[in-house]
Model the fold of this input.
Amino acid sequence: MKILNLYAGIGGNRKLWGDEHEITAIENVPEIAKIYQDFFPKDKVIIADAHQYLLDHYKEFDFIWSSPPCPTHSDFAKLGALSEDYGRGNHLRKAKYPEMGLYQEVILLQHFYKGKWIVENVIPYYKPLIEPQIVQRHCFWANFLIHDIKIDADKIKWGKVKEWQEKLGFNLEGNKGIDKRKVLRNCVRPEIGLHIFQEAFREYKTLL
Done:
């Protein structure tokens, strides 16, 4: 099976998928792409704009996972904590438009893609424009049903880097030039990634 893993990060969602599939990962930050490649040497890793890559190549894959950037949709965005003035002591912070690439991808996949797909993002500060399925701290838009999964509460906002490296199963101690807390925080828990992957092909497995 050919899998496209967009905005791959270090591969939290992909960690438990195994190596029997042909996986292409798209990540636009070279330092993070290198970490992904180190963890998953059999995957094909491409440093590119994932949003454009999806538009150009979506027909080539059997399963697509996309995790577009989430900061402009988060509670922090509403508070202005991620505005351009953050960290400068300026309380007159500028409002920022939400990045709408998230919904562009959902609409594209809903109407033009024939395989199984999922788009992941944070639970936004507004009512989602397209209704998602919600699992833990994530919104998931998909063309299959995702059943609930029993998993401990995710409190990564308050955890230490070392704790989350152990929890997620990624050791970043030897990696420099990256914001480790941010990288780990952006990870989808491997257990959730595996659960959703299995949900996508539940019907197929039933027919075997």
Summary: Strands lie at 2-6, 22-26, 44-46, 63-66, 116-122, 133-135, 138-142. The first strand starts at residue 2 and ends at 6.
